[in-house]
Input
Amino acid sequence: MFEFSQLIIERNQRPILDIPNLTLATDKLTVILGKNGSGKTTLMQCLARQLHPSKGCIRFKEKPLLGFSQRQLAQEIAFLPQSLSEAAGLTIRELVQLGRFPWHGTWGRWRQKDHDIVTQSLKQVGLSHYENQLVEEASGGEKQRAWIAMLLAQQSPVLLLDEPTSALDISHQYELLSLLQKLNRETGQGIIIILHDVNLAARYADRILAIDEGRCVFHGTVDDFMKKEQLESLYNIPMTLINHPENNTKVALAC
Ligand code: ADP
Output
């Protein structure tokens, strides 16, 4: 688990994130929600150790995040940032192969197992037939799925994904979330993911973490989160909740 204590992130002398204490499970599927600019990406960058706290600290597996070497961290935590590099000159397969890097380093031997994991990761995101295509020539959605495959190939116990559905059509959004849920259930990998779609979150999350103006305003189950007043206060617009006609869940509508 991640344990926050007195965490403060400042940018340009302005506090962006202020989380006195929070424990985030690393064996569940947690979705981070909140308006634009609320601090979701900043929080995710702290978990991935891309940003260092101005005050306080985050512990992972009871050890300060700063105590992990870069390689140890990559073996524990795989991070997909919001803006993906062009990966110029690489084919989709070559990009996905980079996910194996933390396990054997630059000069390590490439084994059949690595090859199989890459093949499996490409299959999981539906890109097997595109493996020889250049990443720079792929569509936005294919590129995003190629990066997700790289993340899967890393096989770290914890996956952090910052808006991985932004370029995906609705069917690929649901496919991705259902794949992540399946991985969580079958391999025990913990998933922490930033989404904008409340209903996608409600359909797949075990836990919701809601951030507003740099503060954690909700952390708990989907049932406890899907309340009219809570959603209205988080997004500042009138909302209606209806019962899904085919399953026992709530659907949020902006009105
Ligand atoms: P979200 O992911 O919820 O949209 P962010 O974490 O990206 O929000 O941003 C939170 C706040 O931090 C915003 O007010 C944003 O303008 C500010 N911010 C983000 N990145 C930087 C930066 N590199 N320098 C200064 N301020 C930043």
Summary: The CA atoms of residues 30 and 207 lie 5 Å apart. The chain has one domain: 2-254. DSSP finds ten helices and twelve strands in the chain. The mean pLDDT is 92.
